[in-house]
Specification:
four-stranded antiparallel β-sheet; 19% strand; single chain; alpha+beta; 158 residues
Length: 158
């Protein structure tokens, strides 16, 4: 979104409502934000096209699925050029177990969220991260013990 397309109060109300309840019908959303259904749908489509709304998802409980461990892995690369970052990112894209990756500043380069059946599966992935040609130098792992606060969305200031 460019400067001429800044989010106004109605856009923010739309975003807050959709983030809280992604299954809202357009009619229900329009009522909540005090717009006609056609005007509301036009705004939602504009927000989608601008990349403000990236998609719609159901939030699943990993502990109810056949997932044994949820891990966070700090990965340090052995080189930091543009091609090195691209090679690493392409390498981790092949693993469905790596469900989220963030390139971060600080003592390590990437923070990965990983879901695996057991520690043996994680060890195989961790070894690939450092022993293959994708450029990982060091991996520091944290096992998720509990989740006292779940991600439900980003703050939308209205």
């Amino acid at each position: 979104m460019n400067a001429a397309q800044r989010l106004d109060r109605i856009d923010r109300r739309i975003l807050a409502n959709l983030q809280a309840e992604g299954r809202l019908t357009n009619h229900a959303l329009a009522e909540r934000v005090a717009l006609s259904p056609s005007a509301c749908l036009a705004r939602v489509r504009r927000l989608e096209e601008a990349g403000v709304i990236e998609g719609y998802h159901a939030r699943l409980n990993p502990f109810v699925l056949d997932i044994g461990l949820v891990l966070f892995a700090e990965v340090t690369l052995n080189a930091h050029g543009t091609a090195d970052l691209a090679r690493f990112e392409a390498g981790i894209a092949r693993f469905e177990q790596i469900v989220e990756a963030s390139h971060v500043s600080g003592a390590f380069d990437y923070l990965l969220k990983v879901v695996v059946a057991d520690m043996a599966e994680w060890n195989a992935i961790a070894q690939h991260l450092t022993a293959s040609d994708i450029g990982g130098e060091r991996v520091n792992t944290h096992v998720l013990m509990d989740k006292p606060k779940k991600f439900v969305g980003y703050p939308v200031r209205i």
